[in-house]
Amino acid sequence: MTKQSGARLIALDWGTSSCRAFLLGNDGIVLSERRGNSGVMDVSTAADLDGLAYEEAFEEVFEALCGDWLTDLPALPVIACGMVGSNRGWVQTPYRLLPADLTGDGIALTAVPTRRGATVHIISGLMDDSKLPDIIRGEETQVLGAIVGEQASGSADLEHERVVLLPGTHSKWVRIKGSTVTSFTTCMTGELFSLLTTKSTLAQPSARLEEADWDAFVLGLDVAGAPPGNGGILTTAFSARTLVMTGRLRPNQVEDYLSGLLIGSEIADIKASWLADITVQILLCGEPDLNQRYRMALERFGLSVTHETTTSAVIGMWRTAVSASLLSDAGSPASPTFV
């Protein structure tokens, strides 16, 4: 029996800058993986230039990535998460309002038919429709995967509200109890870092060190957490220039110093406001390098990580497919019972 013959689900993690296609077997085991550079922005921008409808452009990419899988196994269900459901994606899917159970009857999937007869089921994002509205697309699926992994590790305390932190271009802090998202907030830390280190007067012409300069990073954290940092990043960012001018920081340390300033400012602000009323249990879910930086920063600010993962979207999509009955007889030990 080939790996492909044991396939149960195609799962697409389709974000702004990339698309990853997974062929999953029993219990969500990855049988095959394909990565493309055809992120949502690339596909939609090319469609605009070529005068194509988004539906046509995204189906072409989907066919190139997954067509042979579906030729061999045409009955395979397909699920997708991420910006593929945005107004620049395949179709624009509605947001679910909070509170939102990620595993219950309220799961919202938008069915998108394809020419070959397969149906792609896109997972809806979430909206916190408060005075300052906030949205997530794709991270809700990562959150589900993270809490499934947390429970599998035996470290979950489902009776108490926890926080899932997803660092990235736009860091997401998500409160969850059981499998229900109760609130979340967004920090544009990664995007500000990119702008400051490439477009601002703080950008240094010298090459960055290949290895992280942890001394510079920790200095940035400490400045963010000290009284001079109480005014936030707007009052501390210019020090990345003046510390170089006075010889207290080398030019090739600037990026790591700014990284510490920004991440430290994010955590200090979140701790003082958004986390002020709960006992914090933090699940960290991001790329390995960002996880390392945020774990160090959280510990520096007196917070701890109870569970850490770098790959949760696939688990989240599998669990969503199980809950939405896309799979027949999908009994899976990776499908926990939530309180």
What does this structure look like?
By secondary structure, the protein is an alpha/beta fold. It has 10 helices and 15 strands. The C terminus is likely disordered. The strands form 3 sheets. The chain has a 6-stranded mixed beta sheet with strand order 3-2-1-4-8-7, with helices on both faces. Strands 6-13-12-11-14-15 form a 6-stranded mixed beta sheet, with helices on both faces. The protein has a 3-stranded mixed beta sheet with strand order 5-9-10, with no helix packed on it. The two termini are 39 Å apart. Helices cover 36% and strands 21% of the residues.
- What spatial order of strands do you see in the largest sheet? 3-2-1-4-8-7
Average pLDDT for all residues: 90
Instruction: Using the alpha-carbon principal axes, give the shape.
Output: globular
H and E string: EEEHHEEEEEEEHEEEHHHHHEHEH
Largest β-sheet summary:
6 strands, mixed
Distance between the termini: 39 Å
The total count of strands amounts to: 15
Low-confidence stretches: 330-339
Kindly state the percentage of residues in helix: 25-40%
Summarize the structure.
With 339 residues, the protein is of the alpha/beta class. It has helices at 40-50, 54-72, 139-153, 189-198, 214-225, 233-236, 239-245, 254-272, 288-300, 313-323; strands at 9-14, 19-24, 30-36, 78-81, 96-97, 100-101, 109-113, 119-123, 126-128, 134-136, 162-166, 171-177, 180-187, 282-285, 305-309.
